[in-house]
Amino acid sequence: MHKERRAGNGNLSEGTINEQVVAVRMLEEFLGGPTPACAITKADMLNYKRALMDTPTNYRLRFPGKTLPEAITANAKLENPHKVLSPQTINIKWLTHIGTIMGWCVANDLIEANPARGVKVATKKGKSEPTRVPFNQDDLQRIFGNELFSDPKSFETKQWSLLLALYTGARSSSEIARIKLSDIFQEQSVNVIHLEDASKNVRSKRLVPVHRDLIDLGFLDHVEALRKQGKRRLFWDWEPEDKINRWFLRTFKPQVGISDSRKVFHSFRHSLKTELAKRGVNRDVSDLITGHKDQAESGTYIHDASVTMIAAMNEGLNRANFNLKLPRKINLYV
């Protein structure tokens, strides 16, 4: 299926492929092992949906070696069980992926009907509370005012990853984790980061200017130092893929006193979008920075012929001022 979809749609990302592989593995664990598509029934999918509603988040990390049903049982026995998958995650990720795969099987005459069609967790209709919200100014001061950020000379993966999350509007920690040193260069005399390995869609693969605050903190010097060490990736020690996300949510966020469950790693992205709007950055330019619009079609969005896309994004991004009160030191690694 993936070979066919890649041939017909070059935008099929590695992230989507990996999620679909995981979705199949999870269903197989629930069914007790590899199962022919033709043997999977609507009842199986309905029972699977109910099981997902009891499945703890990151169950393979929380319960190493256990299958999905075993993790559900183990979690239920805990005095303080881990949070379970949200209806949105179940619907958007795990059930949708299975539905897509089964739909392909139908289209290729492998099965007669899609047993996953219409199977989803019921959610509340109407306006609901947002599941993710931006960090406010107090939150940002708690995070970046922590002693972890007291000395730029000591900044490594943890510090730079949170700073890049805030100043690039990256969609996820994994998008940042994939940055290679070769993705950081100058374009039209502007220092940029090329998020070419972004995992979501073609709009996610974009250039983002390096904010002057990052430059003042020594980011480019840090990059050069890593190049001299022969490193290839900016975050060469970031393994596994959710390493920083887990540390931030489980350790650092509670440490700095942020308890709101809606404030997660993705909230850095919301914080940048909010700040750009507050500073009056043109919506089209903001969307180019954050990947809501395709930069390959940038001519549609930059209306002043004398201003290039890169220049417009650089000027707009540098309007963002989070007042972090971080030390400003240049050429730290020389």
Automatic annotation (TrEMBL):
Pfam family for this entry, one: Phage_integrase
Secretion signal, residue range per the UniProt entry: none
Family: Belongs to the 'phage' integrase family.
Entries under InterPro entries matching the protein: DNA_brk_join_enz, Integrase-like_cat_sf, Integrase_catalytic, Integrase_recombinase_N, Tyrosine_recombinase_XerCD
Organism: Devosia rhodophyticola
UniProt keyword list: DNA integration, DNA recombination, DNA-binding
Limits of the Tyr recombinase domain: 130-314
Keyword set includes DNA-binding: yes
Keyword DNA damage: no
Designated name of the protein: Site-specific integrase
Transmembrane feature ranges: none
CDD domains membership: INT_C_like_1
